[in-house]
Amino acid sequence: MTEQAKKYLAKKKLEKMEWHNAIFGLSIGGIVIALLTCIFFMLIVNINHANAGELDNWEFNIMGINPRDFKDREVLPIIGGAILSLGVHELGHFAVGEMYGGGSSFDWGERAVMVSDYHQMSNDERALFHGAGFLAQTLVGGILTAIPKTRHSDWTFGFNAFSSVNSFGYGITGGFGDENKSDVHNLDRYGYNGTAIAIGSGVVNGVFTYISLNKDKEE
């Protein structure tokens, strides 16, 4: 590869990183504004309840979600659901790696699932290995959301919320840490659009989060 070609690729990579960072910043800003808006309206509801008894039955909803539902949530189960989601993500990598490559193990130093026979896998199998984390999170989240008894639990909400944030984070930033270990970059490397897969998974898990959020929606 010529020096000019290398400079061109480096420039394109820098432009892509700057675009990802800009989108990531806007996304974080949007999330913060949304949270502050929810807190603001929740405070208004509380003030109205304290000063005007006639408003006790008044309800405020954002896209069908009652912000007061957050007050009924237990923090530890939500955190437990998020940890479970992370575990399912890694388990998805482990299962596919074991199925096609063998010798799968979690490397704590690399903070990733490693496959000893990775070089023997085909490109499609490697792509499935790198996309399996998103697939596993979405599949398990869909099952938890489909079951009426678990649909609105704090565990399910934590699971779906973390899955959505995790997938969007990968899609927006292109992956965390070394790009050679990034699921998004490796999906691109083996002929699949890693960014689209990650963001698509984030959207689906976001829908699951919306469905699981409001406890008042029991059927």
Short summary:
This protein has 219 residues and is mostly helical. The chain has two domains: 1-71; 73-219, no CATH class.
- Kindly state the mean pLDDT as a whole number? 76
Distance between the termini: 62 Å
Query: Which structural class fits the helix and strand makeup?
Result: mainly alpha
Element order: H for helix, E for strand: HHEEHHHHH
Number of domains: 2
Please supply descriptive tags for the structure shown above.
219 residues; mainly alpha; 2 domains; two-stranded antiparallel ribbon; 7 helices; 68% helix; globular
Mind explaining what this structure looks like?
With 219 residues, this protein is mainly alpha-helical. The protein folds into two domains: 71 residues; 147 residues, no CATH class. It has seven helices and two strands, in the order ααββααααα. Strands 1-2 form a two-stranded antiparallel ribbon. The longest helix has 49 residues. The N and C termini lie far apart (62 Å). About 7% of the residues have low confidence.
Layout: helices, strands, pairs:
Blueprint: H1 3-51, H2 75-100, E1 104-107, E2 112-115, H3 123-146, H4 148-151, H5 154-173, H6 183-189, H7 194-213
Antiparallel strand pairs: 1-2
Helix pairs in contact: 2-3, 2-5, 3-5, 3-6, 3-7, 5-7, 6-7
